[in-house]
């Protein structure tokens, strides 16, 4: 599985090859979507994954996309986590949600990763587990594709699984 914290959108594909963030941010604002500099810096990795999926189409069946904030929303009973993940209260809230769902991590320095990025990685790993167990669903139609034929879905825990957990464990 490969998971990223990005959202594929056909209109943004054309700007993933630019060298500065000014153009994509400007275009996104005109579209009423808005991306930030952090998202811009994900573009090289987005291109790598897209190139891999174009060159090896068989991987399209096993490579799934997930978004950590969607995962945290599901962990939080369908309510978005509104506090900023880099702020102490936002970090603590996300860590508490992961612990509540069985993921124990003691925050510690990890070379090359900010601690909030580790929480994001854990959240999307949970989504990977649910996909493997066939307890996840996708946003968007199953056959949604971009102009290059790449899937345009973001995966998350299904409502059925949420209901099952709530009834079984009282969460």
Task: Describe the overall structure.
It is a single chain. The chain is mostly helical and 171 residues long. A two-stranded antiparallel ribbon has the order 1-2. The longest helix is centred in the last third of the chain and has 18 residues. The two termini are 28 Å apart.
Q: How many helical stretches?
A: 8
What's the SSE pattern?
HHHHHHHEEH
Q: What is the mean pLDDT?
A: 78
Provide the spatial order of strands within the biggest beta sheet.
Answer: 1-2
Brief write-up:
The chain has 171 residues and is mainly alpha-helical.
Question: What is the topology?
Answer:
Blueprint: H1 10-13, H2 22-30, H3 37-40, H4 43-55, H5 68-75, H6 88-100, H7 115-132, E1 136-139, E2 154-157, H8 159-169
Antiparallel strand pairs: 1-2
Characteristic key phrases:
mainly alpha, disordered C terminus, globular, 47% helix, 171 residues, 2 strands, disordered N terminus, two-stranded antiparallel sheet
């Amino acid at each position: 599985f490969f998971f990223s914290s990005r959202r594929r959108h056909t209109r943004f594909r054309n700007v993933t090859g630019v060298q500065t963030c000014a153009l994509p941010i400007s275009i996104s604002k005109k579209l009423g979507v808005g991306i930030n500099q952090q998202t811009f810096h994900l573009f090289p990795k987005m291109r790598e994954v897209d190139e891999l999926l174009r060159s090896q189409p068989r991987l399209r069946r096993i490579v799934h996309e997930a978004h950590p904030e969607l995962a945290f929303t599901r962990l939080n009973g369908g309510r978005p986590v509104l506090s900023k993940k880099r702020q102490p209260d936002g970090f603590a809230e996300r860590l508490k949600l992961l612990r509540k769902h069985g993921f124990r991590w003691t925050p510690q320095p990890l070379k090359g990763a900010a601690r909030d990025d580790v929480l994001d990685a854990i959240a999307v790993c949970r989504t990977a587990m649910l996909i493997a167990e066939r307890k996840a669903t996708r946003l968007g139609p199953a056959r949604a594709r971009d102009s290059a034929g790449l899937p345009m879905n973001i995966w998350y825990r299904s409502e059925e699984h949420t209901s099952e957990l709530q009834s079984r464990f009282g969460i």
